[in-house]
Amino acid sequence: NAGVTQTPKFQVLKTGQSMTLQCAQDMNHNSMYWYRQDPGMGLRLIYYSASEGTTDKGEVPNGYNVSRLNKREFSLRLESAAPSQTSVYFCASSDRGPNEQFFGPGTRLTVL
Amino acid sequence: AQSVTQLGSHVSVSEGALVLLRCNYSSSVPPYLFWYVQYPNQGLQLLLKYTTGATLVKGINGFEAEFKKSETSFHLTKPSAHMSDAAEYFCAVSDKGGTYKYIFGTGTRLKVLA
């Protein structure tokens, strides 16, 4: 099993460009999450999807949109990238309940 | 609202010494509690978790943590540090309201000195 996969691994954008970060999991998990990690701030939840067909805002949703395409896939879209969105983005998945979240390897995004 | 505080953004210990990483939470109802480890340029990996039952929880790689309700703490310890323990450690809480979303602490970077 691959676990949680993310593409791309690295990306450089110019201010105003758009892009979609892809995430897929092969563990048949119901819940999926998108986080951003910034130095000294830990991980902050951007959006999550408790089950297929549902999405909800997390702590820092502004400037982002998400799509839960099916049970396996959960994408994060930046419509008009800003330098403040320079960060490392992690996708995670879990079963329902207070269970372990499994993390992908991350996408390092730089917005110039 | 829940919050998590990790005291010390950087901790250094000598190889073979005790590792103690501190985590305190703020919640009216004791939450579910987790410790994750992140090695350089990797995602996070679960070390251990507390949901119910025994308050002393053992995890992988010789780590353990004790849930102390009276102190609202969940400190991570390891009796003897190894060079391979050098990493960043995150404490997280998850609410009991049904969504089980995590709130992460800001992390503690552990350095192990030879």
Keywords:
heterodimer, A: 112 residues, mainly beta, seven-stranded mixed β-sheet, four-stranded antiparallel β-sheet, 11 strands, globular, B: 114 residues, 52% strand
Oligomer: heterodimer
Shape, principal axes of CA atoms of chain A: globular
Give the tally of β-strands of chain B. Answer: 12
Radius of gyration of chain A: 13 Å
Strand percent estimate of chain A = over 45%
Assign a percent range to the helix content of chain B.
Answer: under 10%
Helix and strand pattern of chain A: EEEEEEEEEEE
Give a short account of the largest sheet of chain A: 7 strands, mixed
Detail the poorly predicted runs of chain B: none
* DSSP strand tally of chain A: 11
Distance between the termini of chain A: 36 Å
Helix and strand composition category of chain B: mainly beta
Can you give a write-up of this model?
- The complex is a heterodimer of chains A (112) and B (114).
- Chain A has 112 residues and is mainly β.
- Chain A contains no helices and eleven strands.
- In chain A, the strands form two sheets. In chain A, strands 2, 4, 5, 6, 9, 10 and 11 form a seven-stranded mixed beta sheet that branches.
- In chain A, strand 9 and strand 10 form a beta hairpin.
- By secondary structure, chain B is mainly β.
- Chain B is 0% helix and 52% strand.
- Chain B contains no helices and twelve strands.
- In chain B, strands 2, 5, 6, 10, 11 and 12 form a six-stranded mixed beta sheet that branches. A four-stranded antiparallel beta sheet of chain B has the order 3-9-8-7, with no helix packed on it.
- In chain B, a hairpin with a 4-residue loop joins strand 8 (64-68) and strand 9.
- The mean pLDDT of chain B is 92.
- The interface between A and B is medium-sized, with 28 and 23 residues.
